[in-house]
Design a protein that fits this description.
Number of strands: 23
Number of helices: 27
Structural class: alpha/beta
Shape: globular
Largest sheet: 7 strands, mixed
Strand content: 15-25%
Strand order of the largest sheet: 15-14-13-12-11-10-23
Length: about 700
């Protein structure tokens, strides 16, 4: 397995592959069996060949990128599978219809890479979903409009009807996520305005319940084995029948790394028991499952689901040891439950923290309660699926259990979470040292004080860099055709706007801005500025207010008839965040820098929202930058911004902003344009020409992604 991992990493151009091969060689030397070195090298070659074949596979959709197309295929809730050409695409926005045959039109675009720190790397995720025997997703169909729809039939259609019949939309969505791994419907469900069901599960440490994994396989096979045992079946039937049913089960549900790993491991264990060979070695079974997965789907190695699944199961191998440290008078099920939950959380900590930017603090009690409900809900839900439309009486009980599970998630989802930034090489090395110390302590090789000292030292070493060298920068977030700028000083953090998505249900604040802030290590905002009542500037601010502590909100004009601004002000009211109406001359200072309001004057308001934008100037040690919202050229001339080193171009490079008079006054050496795909012609050629005439370099987020600018 170490050889295969090393080969895949080398095919991806990552030097860590050499380290993985050395680990394999080290294990060979540890066991003094040099002949096994050939297997390490063979694994490396196989891993490299498998990944290389996938990475060099041509994309059948490339000729149609940028075109308006109409396609037809099988929609599974995640991908639309086409027959001609053989390809898979995602749809944005996702259809409200469930899985089935779709005829849909839209613009076909190539997948994008990561555009913001901590953001979603669509291109890498697409590559990871492909395998040697399956088609790699090749593009995204945006502005998708469903022309024809035919509901899913066959066994899956029957099973889905059984899961949802007689249930509310929210209950049915949860059942489809738990039993089939289809999270399309549950992603749209909310407990209340701004409180998404999936977010509540994540904050409570219960997100894994909606991802098919070993828990589902263990509960279902355990229930079947218990039934066969009660019927007096011989061991060959008791364990052999579940093995035979695992294959069809994998075809029924939505395939993923975690459920494939669970089926392979479960099948190996059950087969050994059916043949009377006893329980196989846990590490051997884990390695076998990893080999099977990675040789067929080599880029699963980069998939978060694969990483979480295998890290968790590796940690669980120590459950008995940890349970043995707990008081013997406690029931064994409780000791094992506590040990398993703690180990799973510890084992997946760097991936959870680095990927999602937060670590739940209530995962232990939440999981203990939720697992009891899942032990009943998973088998009963599966039985309901088998019954199809006849499951109405059974779903009365399933609805109650689903509500109980959501109550646990909602209750614990209100608890605080530990925010986290990106995990770098130093953080991974510190985590590895802490894990090694803990493992040696469990084995009795080191004493508890030494292990505890190692943990504290690792914690201190990972905390010090950020405190010794606090950030001083301006970050222009890539939020598409919108605006969001972060100003970071050691003791002042200001977010100017939070993006938005006009005519779309995509929450830029929740899914782009907040993850970026967490990845950057921003745990709170001192000031959130809502420059003016435009969707593409402030729609995301409501989600930012709900998910991060904010000191105060700055606004210019307090409009009472704008729904977007009203939503932001309501979110501030819910979180008891004071709202301040700023005027020209208002200022805040910190760390040798000052942030000054240049506009609005506040004497009179224009009927045009853009004219009322809040404009700001940042000064630090002789360096000056200005952020002008969507101000038009006539207002820009009246600001008196003075000479600038950096200008944030107003209105995404509109021809009616960043006028010649402003540029003559400010002569900025550099200008940043926050812009995305648009039909407005932004940035306009006239603006780019004016910038070139004053020798100001233009930096565009649509070309560069998120732009980070140091502040002296």
């Amino acid at each position: 397995m170490a050889g295969v991992i090393g080969g895949i990493l080398l095919a991806l151009g990552q030097g860590w592959g050499v380290a993985a091969l050395l680990v394999g060689a080290g294990l060979v030397l540890w066991h003094a069996r040099p002949v096994l070195l050939s297997l390490v090298l063979l694994g490396g070659a196989a891993g490299w060949a498998s990944a290389h074949a996938l990475l060099t596979r041509p994309n059948a959709l490339t000729p149609w990128f940028g075109a308006l197309v109409t396609v037809q295929g099988e929609w599974d809730g995640q991908f639309l599978t086409l027959r001609d050409p053989p390809a898979r695409v995602t749809l944005a926005p996702k259809p409200t219809q469930g899985p089935g045959q779709l005829r849909v039109s839209g613009r076909l675009l190539a997948p994008e890479g990561r555009r913001t720190p901590g953001g979603f790397d669509q291109a890498a995720w697409f590559r990871a979903q492909g395998g040697l025997l399956s088609v790699t997703p090749g593009g995204a169909l945006v502005g998708a409009r469903v022309r024809e729809f035919q509901p899913q039939g066959g066994l899956r259609g029957w099973f889905r009807r059984g899961l949802t019949t007689g249930l509310t939309e929210r209950q049915g969505a949860l059942m489809q996520a738990i039993e089939l791994g289809d999270r399309g419907d549950i992603s749209r469900e909310q407990f209340s305005e701004g409180e998404a069901v999936r977010d509540a599960f994540a904050r409570a440490g219960l997100a894994h319940l909606m991802a098919l994994s070993g828990q589902n396989v263990a509960i279902l096979t355990g229930a079947l084995i218990l039934l066969l045992t009660r019927l007096g079946a011989a061991p060959a039937w008791r364990f052999g029948l579940p093995v035979l049913l695992l294959g069809p089960y994998l075809l029924l549900v939505q395939s993923s790394a975690s459920i494939t790993r669970a089926v392979l491991m479960g099948g190996a264990v059950l087969l050994a028991l059916a043949l009377g060979r006893g329980r196989p070695d846990p590490l051997g079974v884990i390695a076998l499952a990893a080999l099977a997965c990675l040789l067929l789907y080599p880029l699963w190695l980069t998939d978060v689901g694969f990483q979480l699944s295998f890290l968790a199961v590796l940690a669980l191998t120590q459950s008995e040891r940890v349970a043995g440290l707990l008081p013997g008078r406690w029931p064994r099920w409780l000791r094992l439950g506590l040990a398993a939950t703690l180990l799973a959380e510890a084992g997946t900590l760097p991936v959870i923290a680095g990927t999602f930017g937060q670590v739940p603090l209530v995962g232990l009690p939440a999981n203990l309660l939720a697992e009891g409900i899942m032990a009943l809900l998973v088998p009963l839900g599966f039985l309901a699926g088998l019954l199809g439309p006849l499951a109405l009486p059974l779903n009365v009980l399933n609805g109650v259990l689903a509500d109980a599970l959501m109550l646990v998630a909602r209750t614990f989802g209100h608890a605080p979470v530990l925010t986290w930034g990106q995990v770098g090489v130093g953080g991974l090395l510190a985590y590895g040292a802490a894990v090694l110390a803990g493992w040696l302590w469990l084995l009795g090789r080191v004493r508890a004080p030494a292990a505890l000292g190692t943990w504290l030292a690792c914690l201190l070493l990972t905390t010090l860099p950020g405190r010794l060298h606090p950030a001083r920068e301006v970050v222009f977030l890539d939020v598409g055709q919108g605006d969001s700028t972060l100003i970071r000083l050691p003791h002042l953090t200001v977010l100017v706007d939070a993006g938005g998505s006009v005519g779309s249900d995509y929450d830029v604040g929740a899914h782009t801005v907040v993850p970026t802030l967490r990845a950057l290590g921003v745990r709170k905002l001192d000031v959130l500025v809502a420059t003016h009542a435009d969707t593409d500037h402030i729609e995301g601010a409501a989600s930012v207010l709900r998910q991060l502590p904010v000191g105060e909100v700055w606004i210019g004009q307090r409009k009472t008839d704008d729904p977007v601004l009203t939503a932001v002000l309501l979110a501030a009211q819910e979180r008891r965040v004071p709202v301040r109406e700023v005027r020209r001359g208002d200022q805040v200072t910190s760390d040798g820098a000052s942030l000054t309001v240049l506009w609005p004057a506040g004497h009179a308001w224009s009927t045009e929202d853009n004219d009322n934008s809040v404009a700001l100037r940042l000064e630090s040690r002789g360096w000056r930058a200005a952020f002008l919202g969507d101000l038009p050229a006539l207002v820009e001339e009246r600001l008196g911004a003075g000479p600038l080193d950096l200008l944030k171009a107003a209105h995404h490079g509109s021809p009616h902003s960043t006028g010649a008079a402003l540029l003559a006054q400010t002569t900025p050496a550099d200008t940043v344009v926050s812009v995305g795909r648009n039909t407005y012609g932004h940035p306009h050629p006239d603006v780019l020409t004016r910038l070139a005439q004053v020798h100001s370099r233009a930096w565009r987020t649509d070309q560069l992604g998120t732009i980070r600018w140091p502040v002296p």
